Amino acid sequence: MKITAKKSLGQNFLTDEKIIDLIIKLGEISSNDFILEVGPGTGALTKKIIENQPKKLTVIEKDEVLARGLNLRFGDKLKVINEDMMQISYNNYFDKNLIIFGNLPYNISTQILAKWIKDYDLNKFCKRLILMFQKEVADRIIAKSNSKDYGRLSILSNWKMKIKKIIDIEPHCFKPSPKVKSTLLVFTPKKKFYELRDPRNLEHITNIFFSQRRKMIRKPFKFLFENYEEISKKLSVDLSLRPQNLDCLTYYKICAIYEGLTN
Predict the structure, then answer these.
(1) pTM listed for this prediction
(2) 43 and 107 share one domain
């Protein structure tokens, strides 16, 4: 069956065997593991996962042609869900501590990551995520405060997870070759993280701060809090700083105070 990548679905199929072997090694698959692969494409990584004999493998593939091809190729060695990975409720399918693999479509990579972080108790949902992103997006995910790439995505991603960059991957490792480099990241859920009532509040707050990232933070503080000077002193925050100067923990504390006021 000849497969043509669909630009509308952001499809770039990983073909480099060394990179595929590296991803498998990072997964540390055992016979007791439940595996979820999102965006399996033509099944190059899927094949290697099956060879490592996990307890169960489920793949989510939106493309009907590719989903049919995976069923034909692998039969009862996996379960294929032919749906949009953004639209399904993962609670309906899984009650196990998953290992998640994904060469995420560039056009929805940040949305699917944000969905998992916001909607699920990650400690119960998965034990490890090995995910591929466009390098520019990965740089934003792992960025630290006081850097140009640091922002809303960095703060949300690092809230519930420890993140490790593994390697940058050249375009020629994919077919068709994308115009940009990719980056492989490993995410491990934190056992303890800053408790917030609603992740949407964190998104709301970081949106207010980073919509004017070159401006001093006095304005967003004033917008969020009537007693903004008192709160800034409580947090030991200088209101003349810029949004990228505040570390992740400070944003979680700001969110917690905001939630207390909006309870």
Answers:
(1) 0.91
(2) yes
